[in-house]
Amino acid sequence: MTKINMTVNGRAVSAEAEDRTLLVEFLRSGLNLTGTHVGCDTSQCGACLVHVNGEAVKSCTMLAAEAEGAEVTTIEGMANADGSLSTIQAAFQEHHGLQCGFCTPGMVMSAAALLKDNPKPSEAEVRDYLEGNICRCTGYHNIVKAIMAASGQLDAIAAE
Amino acid sequence: MPKDGGIGARSKRREDVRFLTGRGKYTDDIQLPGQTYACFARSQVANGRIAGIDTTAAEKMPGVLAVFTGEDFKDVGGNPAGWLINSRDGTPMKEPKRPVLAHGKVRHVGDAYAAVVAETYEQARDAVDAIEAEIEELPAVIDMASALANSDNLVHDEIGTNQCFDWGWIEDNREATDAAIKSAPHVTTLHLVNNRLVPNAMEPRSSTGSYDPGTGEYELRTTSQNPHLTRLLISAFVLGIPENKLTVIAPDVGGGFGSKIYHYGEEALVLAAAKRLGRPVRWTATRTEAFLTDAHGRDHVTKIELATEKDGKFIAIRTETMANVGAYLSNFSTATPTFLHGTLMAGVYSVPNVYVNVKAVFTNTAPVDAYRGAGRPEATYSIERVVDKCARELGIDPIELRRKNFIKPDMYPYTTPVALQYDSGNYDALVDKMEERGDLAGFEARAAESKSRGKLRGLGISTYIEACGIAPSNLVGQLGSRVGLYDAATVRVNATGNLSVMVGAHSHGQGHETVFPQIVADMLGIDESMIEIVHGDTSKIPFGMGTYGSRSLAVCGSAVVKATEKVITKAKLIAAHMLEAPGEEVEFEDGIFSIKGTNKTVPWGDVALKAYIPHDFPLENLEPGLEETAFYDPANFTYPSGAYACEVEVDPDTGEVDVLSFVAADDFGNVMNPMIVEGQVQGGLAQGIGQAMLENTTYDENGQLLSASYMDYTMPRADDFPMFTVDHSSVTPCTHNPLGVKGCGEAGAIGSPAAVVNAVIDAIQRGGKSDLTHIDMPLTPARVWAAMNA
Ligand code: FES
Ligand code: FES
Questions:
Q1: Global pTM?
Q2: A136·B253 Cβ contact <8 A
């Protein structure tokens, strides 16, 4: 067991973890931040996606120890300071971009990373970017719509 | 103007806020004090005799608290099939025992034969590796035809055959159907495979058992679509825990699509282990375990024949199907290929003769059961593919051939030759809507444009009908169901006037927490925000058969309406007492009680409060309190229907298929929340198009699952789809439930595969290869290219 220190959602945290502990397990079991989910064992579903030092990272692919000293943002840190939903979160609700909610934290984190780099993506770019996030419920339609809406381009998607 | 609340409004989902902020509580998110972890030892071989299991080394591993094998459960019950099917000769289906842990034999890769409970999951997993199991591998039974032909090689030795049943529907139709086909001027024949799918809810199954030695009470938190059914199965069949000592809680559940209807052995194990250890025991599936052990879907091999007059009028449909049930009978596995499939084999058509034969086959593969649509996608795919092929053979436009044979609006109620009575529908109106929304008139121009780019564009049509709102208990009881399929709701009015509504339906993505309040609010004339839904906990809700078969609104929603009506009746009596008038003179509108012809009124909130402060109640006539429960058992199935159009582009050089557009025109009866309905259809379409284009579950001849991860099983991704066009404006309300609703959860998955395949065949035939009439799903580039170049 080693003590691991990092900043999660703006708060300095430290907890004991085994060397083999993955970041996702550290967040879920160590810090009780259970909004980050585990949907697969081959790093493909994206349910575990968080931001590490501003970059989108699948937290099932990283050891907790590798995030020593890093700035980590999880879904729990995405709302506005007053607790209200951020633009992306609100767009997901407004456009019914989630059903069971299990893929949702990863989708929101992924969308945030996309819009940070590419504030006005095309519909095709959104679909392409979501390659690493699997949703079984929505057929992606409303996820794409929500992300386009969050980027202020609702009128740019093909007519339904 | 869209309404801003109540029935028909696009109310935003209140559950979204917790999911969007990471505050959902899924089973694996909840840590109980003292929790321990289970890990299962699973068979690496498809068929094997267990010669011995040595757990000594595992027991000594660090952190290990207990090790279980099949021996520990050999005297408890098995997990039963919920539906008894009789074969054509009248004999009952073969029903081998499905134990908690394999005993004597392992029967599929992933079949659990032992389990370790330890302080941490890693310790449990390490100890599983230390279990020494001696398993003699036997030849695997994989291919259905060989399974039926070869009785030396059996999945279950004790039943002497690999055939579960040989079912005919309806046996009395057989001779007439055979004769009609023999003498028909035209018969179209098609052999097809309905590919095996893995449901792949994104949340893997997870169960936590706990036991309180002080009270003898058990609690199971589990990923279930129907906690009461799970409790019933565990209590009555598997472990014998008294029902009133077992609470089953299904908290937030991350999708189900059928796979979480069923009771699984892991649930029984964590309960038994919790009792032995006196500590909570958690198990959560890895994705690999989910692939190996969740009940799979579909897996039919079918021959279908459609007999017609020369002008295309349908005379008869006959199908022969082999349906894979896998290694054990999962709870609804016997109903899925029979009463959810054979009964739909007339589709939306007026066809005088229909006969269906289904042979269910045991194989050394994971159990197969209901997956989104359950039987109805298989029926729809067979019918809509053969109708399309027939149209091409007769040189009739596929839409015209369908229109010619539709059941017409003046024919309802319409009894099909396969024993369903459709209550309402208007299929021509759906096709009109589909043609309009999809601009089908413009297709030829689009095809020409594709051609100019060297691509082959195709248009595929499918219609569908499904039997939903599962189900009238009386009817399903006659057909072999061992459970009733009603639902229940309790409407509790609290003293301050807000409400808790306990529902038997379970939401794992369907938005019940939003939609049920819309209905109650509409009936009471109060704000939706005053109503909270409670679901997924057997200790809090009256009873319930859960959510599957597009039943939540049609069945449980009707129970909610009934219970709310009872509340209104009682509230009127309280209002009458308060306003000093006879009960029959009280009127209730927009949350206000009034007396006919007077200006005396009392608002909802005062009546609610009065119910709990009954100082002056005439107690012999009026009880305190305001809470009512209703059970609702439907009079019939509901019959959603639709017309779907898909346009694809095929690259003749690579066989690659691009789905360019998809239009779904559905009739769901009345719509409570259009936003949620559209989401359900979009999700269903993705699963149906996924089946047609991408997904396939493959076992090799030794029974190894080749597609056991997201590396090998192609899950649909965002870039596989266009934006969908979804239209539910064609409405023929259900005639027998109070809301006039039909259900929308499965439609997309039912109607879409045939439309996709029909489109690809159309494209290839337009490209000049008119002798190509079928390609089996999924239409991967390799398959399409091979078919085009055969
Ligand atoms: S859990 Fe990390 S990608 Fe699936
Ligand atoms: S909302 Fe259920 S997996 Fe995406």
A1: 0.97
A2: no
